[in-house]
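Input chain follows. Return structure tokens only.
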Amino acid sequence: MFIGRVVGQVWATRKMRDLDGKRLLVVQPLDDHDEPGNGKVGPVVCADPLGANQGEAVLVAFGKAARVAMGGDGDFALEAAVVGIVDDLDAPDAPASWRAGTFAGRNAAEVSS
């Protein structure tokens, strides 16, 4: 599992039948790209059963956990799924980029009040 930020959405008119009706997002893992030796993970396409918005921080699961999160017995043609939308993050030593925009979208009004 990793924390990432929603950076886009994917539309595909031709896809496996079990993906029909599934919302697909592009999620960029949060990491410090400047850190030497850091694994440079690129954006991941994730199924989204929760309705995450552009710019929100999300929790992403892989493999069987992702397929089960999408419902049923977990037999879907997908490898990653959004399993949570981050409300807040307490990681004092994390790069500033981790917090930037965490409260985007639906939570912005709640946090600013």
